[in-house]
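Supplementary Methods, section 5.1.

A reviewer requested that the exact input to the structure prediction be made available. We therefore reproduce it here, unchanged from the version used in the analyses.
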Amino acid sequence: MKVGCIGLGDIAQKAYLPVLGVRPGVELHLQTRTPATLARVADGLHLPDGQRHTDLDSLLGQDLDAAFVHAPTAVHPEIVTRLLEAGVPTYVDKPLAYELADSARLVELAERRSVSLAVGFNRRYAPGYAQCADHPRELILMQKNRIGLPEEPRAMILDDFIHVVDTLRFLVPGPVDDVTVRARVESGLLHHVVLQLAGDGFTALGVMNRLSGSAEEILEVSGQDTKRQVVNLAEVIDHKGQPTVRRRGDWVPVARQRGIEQVAGAFLDAVRAGKVLSARDALATHELCERVVRAVQEKAA
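The structure derived from this sequence is encoded token-by-token as follows.
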């Protein structure tokens, strides 16, 4: 199975290549326009020259079975379009694109061509978060905070807050009938944003503070007098009277803890089985993010 990896930045090197590089039956091909990076990463994986590419044309000439796109978001539309038009099942690190119209166009193109398109929402596969789907969820609270990183609203929401948005969508126990956005913007930079989703019998809150003084990610789901808390995707605490703590095992890889191994495996398994994956649900997350962006921009005006 020939699998291409386009873009060799931190996410590719730290999260995906350690998984793809050891997966049985995968012939890995790398592509980046930076020769020094290509040589260093490919050498580390002991890849021959024929599996190293400095341009997309060379990579597409390998008759790929699947591709992973980890290039900068700004070039996603161009790269993904070429892959889909070539009939290559494609996995894209979130987001599909910064503009909703581009994201919608890519999803429609994949559907017209009957080619798989998947978006890297790995938290749906992270064990701690997946287990929360089995817990009562009358109230959901997710925080993903940073230190000293206020940013332009669209980039912050689509590159980072999108994980919070998608996790809330994944965990809400029913249809959402109310969406509320609160935010603080100063000098064009988004300091914090709060998203509330509500429906029949549940409320979900997503929070991101880029001036929080702490880099952390905390998910809590509660209901029926019980609470489950997941801290930094590694520690699960069940509260019912006395708390019970389950920590990540010493030998559990970070990629498995964060759901990277599972989501990449699910994509490749579907490709191998000839199953066409739709990104239509992922597009719904992008649509909600666009709603957040517009609400933030209105408050800043």
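Residues 280-300 form the longest helix (21 residues). These observations are discussed further in the main text.
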